[in-house]
Amino acid sequence: MKRGSAVLAVLLWSTLALAASASAQSQGRISDATQECINCHSLITPGIVADWQKSRHAQVTPAEGLAKPAQQRRISVAKVAPELADIVIGCAECHGMNSAAHPQDSFEHNGFTIHSVVSPPDCATCHPTETTDFADNLMAQAYANLMNNPVYAMMVNNTNGLAEFTDSGFHHLPADDTSNADSCLACHGTDVKVTGTVTRDTAMGEMTFPVLSNWPNAGVGRLNPDGSTGACSSCHTRHQFSIEMARKPYTCAECHKGPDVPAYKVYEVSVHGNIQKSMDKSWNYSAVPWTVGKDFTAPTCAACHASELVDENGETLAKRSHRMNDRLPWRIFGLPYAHPHPIKADTTAIVNKGGLNLPTELTGEPVSAFLISNEEMAERQRRMERVCAGCHSQQWIDGHFDRLDRSIETSNSMTLQATKILSSAWQEGLAQGLPQGANPFDEAIEMKWIEQWLFFGNSVRFATAMGGVDYGVFADGRWTQAKNLQEMADYLKFLRASQPQAEQKK
Amino acid sequence: MKRGSAVLAVLLWSTLALAASASAQSQGRISDATQECINCHSLITPGIVADWQKSRHAQVTPAEGLAKPAQQRRISVAKVAPELADIVIGCAECHGMNSAAHPQDSFEHNGFTIHSVVSPPDCATCHPTETTDFADNLMAQAYANLMNNPVYAMMVNNTNGLAEFTDSGFHHLPADDTSNADSCLACHGTDVKVTGTVTRDTAMGEMTFPVLSNWPNAGVGRLNPDGSTGACSSCHTRHQFSIEMARKPYTCAECHKGPDVPAYKVYEVSVHGNIQKSMDKSWNYSAVPWTVGKDFTAPTCAACHASELVDENGETLAKRSHRMNDRLPWRIFGLPYAHPHPIKADTTAIVNKGGLNLPTELTGEPVSAFLISNEEMAERQRRMERVCAGCHSQQWIDGHFDRLDRSIETSNSMTLQATKILSSAWQEGLAQGLPQGANPFDEAIEMKWIEQWLFFGNSVRFATAMGGVDYGVFADGRWTQAKNLQEMADYLKFLRASQPQAEQKK
Amino acid sequence: MKRGSAVLAVLLWSTLALAASASAQSQGRISDATQECINCHSLITPGIVADWQKSRHAQVTPAEGLAKPAQQRRISVAKVAPELADIVIGCAECHGMNSAAHPQDSFEHNGFTIHSVVSPPDCATCHPTETTDFADNLMAQAYANLMNNPVYAMMVNNTNGLAEFTDSGFHHLPADDTSNADSCLACHGTDVKVTGTVTRDTAMGEMTFPVLSNWPNAGVGRLNPDGSTGACSSCHTRHQFSIEMARKPYTCAECHKGPDVPAYKVYEVSVHGNIQKSMDKSWNYSAVPWTVGKDFTAPTCAACHASELVDENGETLAKRSHRMNDRLPWRIFGLPYAHPHPIKADTTAIVNKGGLNLPTELTGEPVSAFLISNEEMAERQRRMERVCAGCHSQQWIDGHFDRLDRSIETSNSMTLQATKILSSAWQEGLAQGLPQGANPFDEAIEMKWIEQWLFFGNSVRFATAMGGVDYGVFADGRWTQAKNLQEMADYLKFLRASQPQAEQKK
Question: Which run of H or of E encompasses C169?
Fold first, then answer.
């Protein structure tokens, strides 16, 4: 399209769009800059404009938000800048306001300086407490904790890299960035950098844009071009940013439903999950604070791990927290054994006696120097129990946590047995792993070992923690744990039997 | 907290709570005893009080329930005691009314004698027919049928017990009560007994409570401290006891979604399940009786197995029944083969010619003396067909049941082939099982055999019975059945090859 | 029931039914023939009558449909016959109107000539464009493409046929029609023919009906007794035919949720799927055309593959199409490798250099003569990108499709490695496959090879295409792909080791 006709089109479309974008709530309170964005984008990307129009951002100004009683506020800043106070928060505000902090990815766009990748520091303009909390989160470091840990990086390579079968065995190729971004890093977050610029012929004429590496991505631990870490949009989905959506378990399920971390699968068949699915037509997912029994009658993920909960008398059961492990003493996600939570969000410094960057020894012993103390564990459990006590008696709660202790103990034991079998394989040279200085994750018996803890140990513990019965039994649970162990032992025998004859005599 | 301040707190809280608990429907009809419970518990466990306030129990008195036409009644008692007739049914009624029948678990609590574990005989005060029906159910005996059957008990032990790997093989440890309660018995029900008392420092001051073994639990075949069996709350979830929820398939999914009994997974992808998920916004899940086509347009689990169904002219399609197999001729859950339903709910007396407590021989032949007759099977099928006929022609119905017959026949055959392979392994001493007097469930090839019937045979049959296509093909269906059989045959060869040389010469 | 009393019953019931069937919208506009159907069937099959009464068919006449602006029409015929124009479309219209075109399956029924199996040509009376589009669909040929392809037919046989274990190996039996209809053909469609007649004693007295082979079935590629192919009711579920339902992903999930084609599982955990599940209470699934951002805020299957999409200014983003691959360049469902879409819906003519009826060689090379050109691929991608652009920038879109290209490339490579291992097994005689002229799908290592592409390759590609992260990693994704490959290589060694001694020396 030629520049001239493009400009004409904009003028025509603008008139239509202006009418479309006006709504009762936002009328007259949309900034001029945002209105200019909308004028074109209601035609270029109409879906996100319409989506935003349904958002609270489009309907409430920061001043109105601040006027609410503290417990009902959705923003945590004490005071907003005067130029923001009385407008609704639109395109230009999030994508254009903090340009100075975005030296790499800001660019000129129709007379405005904007950036594509809105980052936690941008959100912190109005939501500083949430942003600070979030930064203390393991999830905020999900990129670094995976990719900068040499142990896990080997596993990433074996998962996403190609293997070529030859007569003399496999030739493993390193994983490429595109596959990593499409696989592990889709949840963990990619490393987004500006790598150049590109000029495109758009409906508005020729335009120049920065080129972003590993884009698109909304992974929770994303490395942003402004140097910050994390993506609020990972859970607060663009562009409606609905608290209703963030509180529904489907948001968490995006990354927490696989066999490695079956949280949502477990929740779905738990009593809590059944109540949520069966009865939530009458729930109010948007109320702040969130009143137990009145607004909702069974916890979702958010209720136990993040939301501000009160009872009908306004008593607080749980403080809002975006540090998702504030109420979690144990990290039941075994690496390879369940262990007390790490002290710091960045876990790359953790190293065990064997020199591996793991929070436990291969024998199961926790690497205590890097993990929270018993006192901190007790305090976190106390906080979680306060949530349980919204509906359950102390005896109920005690019984529940006794089971969790035992579940951690037994699943860790079953991981230890699998580790013994793998050690035998390594020692006998039937697989090439740690003793040989080889990748410990790329042969079949090694991968069976990984599934013992990553899939089955985790499944057993998540099932106990959240009451998803079958995931503790037949669906990757205790049954599968027992079966995989037996199969590993047989596999060891089969590997021995399939060695060349000379080898077999050893 | 000291006693004095606790009492003061109660007084203050009571005032607030009193206001909170009053609702239009329950105003003036809550018993004094229940009101006292609410006064404290709206602060101690506010979620369940609010939940109960939304329940029918909180809004309708037994007298009002009895005043309805018979077909619309939710209670089956002919007449209620005068002291119950005109109050709503709250905390004190269920937890305090039948203390004499609860000699073990009743205890003094703030001037009231109450018990924690409400049991079917308590519910029978108003719902005697439902309770009696339920007692005839396999599910009501789910604890005993599993734990008191020596064959199944071995499988429980192998699933939940630890295995220790040593150079000379595995050392198996018996399963502990905590793991069993957290695993199989979470659905089957635990053995709940009073084992002592405990004094706790509560928000209301020091209080003494009975200690309950294997608590918490809402498993369907729970052994209760009052000597009764079963838990109505397994499906009628506390404390809303919503018929809407019991009729939704998510309730059944709590225990019927695993690979062993994939009923809900199958339902979800069936045409019925699609209609339910897509169209149920306009359904009335609470109407009694439940009108086909008007209140709902596709059956849920409850429609086929439990609910009172009528057409718009009031003609009955199905009688309400809490004997869930009233309309089921076959037990498609193979043990190890699908077979006619057992005559009695308690199946522990069943013994086959081989002396095993199984409803079939290892050859597949049913142990007929303990199973329903052909006549009874025909009668049950007739009842189910009456439900199908609400929407389907007789030719459609006949075609459906022809497929079920064939599905039972073929999946049983595929189980028989797997059994032949396992028998070879036992006979050759490659695994230690029945001929050796050893646990037949704890080695890899044995566990592969179990999955042949428990996972794949069941999946094929459930898929046929309910129309969940892929569960009869690639998702644990015929494909997986065929593949597992091939793998078992190869496994036999691999076990032979991995025997010590001397052994191989045999 | 005797004829006399049956007739009396009809008279009584008719009176009741007449009242029941009258509704505000359909009053006076139901044809006399349909009213007669309803009079009995509101008693015989009340569910489907009530279901139909909720349908648009029962509430809008063709003349009213035609009076709408073109973009809002749900019928594509230019003009309807006068006798149809002003009545609502009921039982007699669909089941009785085109009797002449149903010489095989028409029969006399209470004075009317009707047929049970309503076929696409029947629907074409009002919906000709949709019917024509649909006929160009791979799905419309789903029966023939599976059963008439000798390669796939071998796989059907191995999946659904019985295998008998004997000392000398397996004896494979061919699959029977009943099992096929209950398994693969439940989705693909069965071959429905009239095979005779049957007389039944019904509530209306003795009646004669045609006997239909392989009935019931609503598979998408069904062979109908009128000689036509396909079943509209596969997605437009009887008898409400709700566009809301067809647009919800649960409809597609009926056949697209298994491990072979995990589209719905992937969608469910994608951002799109999360938005749909979390926010759809406020969506309008019934609007025609469907407005992005206003009616819905994330695409369902229908949005990307079938529906007419517009923005709020009425600009078209996508034309309605029942050729589901109109916007799909690649067939990511590998056979065994992902490849450009076939040119023709009927794929039985495709043959590769090796003489197999497959769209790729066993080396991965596409059989180009039968597949769409690069130009056609580009055009289809352009159409799909127009849908993406409803919400996403071009950079976002380009990044997405770069990943899809790489995902196709890498998953195809991992299939190739597995193929090399299988070739080794065949060459060494460790399995009997193509070189031996044997079924290449019926031994364990062959079935492991099939899962490499049919389950894991497909899962990786679907996960990339739709953003369902874990299905590209741990849930049958890259992890499983890598593990299965390692296991296949070990399996080859185990097979070698388990050969008789003489054989091992080779």
Answer: strand C169-172
Bridge partners, residue C310, by sequence: C291, C316
pLDDT of residue C301 exceeding 80, the answer is: yes
Q: Rounded to an integer, what distance in angstroms lies between the CA atom of residue C470 and that of residue A321?
A: 26
Give yes or no for residue B10 having a pLDDT over 80. no
Domain end: A268, A299, A323, which one?
A323
Chain C residues whose beta carbon lies within 8 Å of the beta carbon of residue A44: 389
Residues B192 and B274 in one domain: no
- C213 and C284 in a single domain? The answer is no
Residue A61, domain member (yes or no): no
In a shared domain, residues B382 and B499: yes
Q: Which two tokens stand for residue B337?
A: 């083969």
Q: How much is the pLDDT for C4? A: 41
Partners of chain C (3+ Cβ pairs below 8 A) = A, B
Residue C203 is predicted with a pLDDT of: 86
Residue A107 phi/psi, 5° resolution?
A: -150, 160
Cβ atoms of A55 and A241 within 8 Å: the answer is yes
CA B286 from centre of chain? 21
Looking up tokens 């396999």 gives B138
Considering its fold, how many domains does chain B have in total? 3
Using DSSP bridges, classify how beta strands B112-114 and B107-109 pair: parallel, antiparallel or unpaired.
antiparallel
- Given a contact cutoff of 8 angstroms between Cβ atoms, the answer to whether A464 and A457 are in contact is no
- A279 CB-near residues (< 8 Å, 6+ apart): A297, A298, B240, B242, B244, B245
Query: Which residue matches tokens 């007669």?
Result: C36
Cβ-nearest to C162 among B271, B278, B413 = B413
pLDDT tens column, B106-162: 999 999 999 999 999 999 999 999 999 999 999 999 999 999 999 999 999 999 999
Where in the sequence is the domain holding B249, given as residue range(s)? 243-323
Residues in chain B: 506
Q: What's the ipTM?
A: 0.95
Indicate if the pLDDT at residue C504 is higher than 50: no
Burial of residue A111 (CB within 10 Å: 0-12, 13-18, 19+) is exposed
Rounded to a whole number of angstroms, the distance from the CA of A384 to the nearest CA of chain C is 26
- Do residues B389 and B249 share a domain? no
For residues A26 and A60, the answer to whether their CB atoms sit within 8 Å is no
CA nearest neighbour of A194 among A217, A215, A221: A215
A420 and A390 in a single domain? The answer is yes
Of B407, B479, B497, the CB nearest to C498: B497
Pair (B496, B478) in one structural domain? yes
Residues of chain B numbered 224-243 and touching chain A (CB < 8 Å): 237, 240, 242
Per-residue tokens: B259: 């690979």
